[in-house]
Known about the structure:
The chain is mostly beta strands and 70 residues long. The protein has one domain. It contains no helices and five strands. It has a five-stranded antiparallel beta sheet with strand order 1-2-5-4-3, with no helix packed on it.
Amino acid sequence: MEQIxxxxxxxxxxxxxxxxxxGDEYICEETGDEVILMKDRSGKxxxxxxxxxxxxxxxxxxxxxxxVAA
Length: 70
């Protein structure tokens, strides 16, 4: 079963999402939209980080997943 790891750093205002093994990170690429793509050696995107991400203190962050058949 695949795992998705989500980290919200309130202090650094970042949201990091891994859908691959973080240990396989080889290179990062900034998209220009305050999003950084993390890639493995073959260039496959294995995660991303959204910079300047924040939610109001009074809000709860909720995550929803939907499986889509390929």
